[in-house]
Amino acid sequence: MINQFRNLNPINLLLLFAYTFFMRMAIFAELPSALQFEFLEPYAKFLIHIPIGEVLSPATNVFFAAIIIYVQAILFNRVINNHVLLTKPGYLPALLYITSASLFMPFLVLSPTLICNFLLIWIMDKFLKIGKSTTAIMPMFDIGMIIAIGTLIYFPFIVMLVMIWLTLLLYRSFDLREWLSGLVGFLTIFFFLAVYYYWNDSISMFYKIWLPLGNKFPSVFKINYDDYLVLVPVLVMLILASLQLRENFFRSFISTRKAFQMLFFMFLVGLVSFYTKPDFRLHHFLLCVPPGAVLLAYYFSNATKRWFYESLFLIFVVTIQYFLFV
Question: What gap in Å lies between CA 317 and CA 168, rounded to an integer?
Fold first, then answer.
C-alpha cells in the first residue's frame, strides 16, 4: 500500500477517498444517537451565531467530517510536495494524514479543531515560505490574523502565536517589525471584537476571554492507558522517523532542516496548548496531526525494506480499526 502512494498517480485520489471512509467504518457501523458540534467559542457567538451543529444528524455529521478530512489531506499533501520536504513527490503525506486523523473516535466527528486544521495547514504553508521571502512583515501579519480567526473557533489555537516567534528565530535574523507584525495582525481581529462588545455594553466581559491563559499547566494527569495503546505503533514510527531524519539531517538542504525543526515545534505547541481549555476533549489533539503526519510520511518515503514498512503500516491500520471497534 505504501508503494502505491509513493507516486503521483491520479488513481490515488480515488483510493484515498475510499480509504477515508474505510477508516471510519467503526463509527458508521454504530452511529451515536446524538452529536454536538459547536462551531465557535461562546465569546464569538456573541458576534455571530452559526447553528450548524443544531441541524446536522449524526450520520451527516460523520459524513461531512470524512469529507473535510479528505479535502484537508489533499491540501496538506500539496503543501508538503510544493516545499519538497520528502525525497520525491507522492501521496504519502495525504495517506498518513488520513490515517493519523482516524486514531480516536472523537477524531471522526465534526469539531472546532477539525475546522482549525484548515487554518493550521494554511499557516504551515506560509511559514515554509518565510525563508524564501525578502521580508516577513506582511506574511506574519496575515498569520496573526489567521491565528485570531482560529482563536474565535477554538481558544487553544491562540498558543500558535508562539510559532510566529519560533519560526522567525529559525528562518530570519531579528527584525522588530517582523516580530511585532504577527501580534498586530492578531490584535486587529480582536480589536473589532472588542468594539462589538463595547457597542453592546458588554466590554466588561471582554477581559474574561483571556482568563484561560492564566491556567496552571496540570501536574497530575488521569489517564486510562488502555485507551491509548493505539499510540504504540505511532510511537514506534515516530522513533524510526526521528532516527531516519537524524541520519539524513546534515545531508539535507538547510531549508528542509529548518522546516522539520519548525514542524517539531508546531507539534509540541499543539500538544501542550490543551491547558488553556480546562474542559478540553480528545479531539484537541487533531492539532498535532498535520506536523506529526509529515514526520511519519518522511519515514515511509525513505524506508527501504518493503516487507518491514508495509507490515508496520498494516499493523498501524489494523490497530486503529481494532480499538475503534472495541
Answer: 37
Q: Are 126 and 143 in contact (CB under 8 A)?
A: yes
pLDDT interval class at 217 (50, 70, 90): low
Confidence of residue 124 (pLDDT cuts 50, 70, 90): very high
Which 3 state secondary structure label does DSSP give 16? helix
Please state, in angstroms and rounded to a whole number, the distance separating the CA atoms of residues 42 and 58.
Answer: 23
Q: Per-residue DSSP letters for 112-139?
A: HHHHHHHHHHHHHHHHHHGGG-S--HHH
Residue ranges making up the domain that contains 298:
3-129+215-325
Count of the separate structural domains present in the chain? 1
Residue 145 lies in a domain: no
- Cβ contact 134:175 at 8 Å: no
| Other Cβ atoms within 10 Å of 255 Cβ, number | 15
Percent of the chain at pLDDT exceeding 70: 90
Q: Is residue 276 one of the residues assigned to a domain?
A: yes
User: Count of CB atoms within 10 A of residue 228's CB?
Assistant: 14
Contact 290, 124 (CB under 8 A): yes
Task: Kindly state whether residue 288 falls inside one of the protein's structural domains.
Answer: yes
With residues binned 3-state (H G I as helix, E B as strand, rest as coil), the percentages for the chain, rounded to 5, are: 75, 0, 25
Residue type at position 80: I
The per-residue pLDDT for 26 is: 86
Residue 162 lies in a domain: no
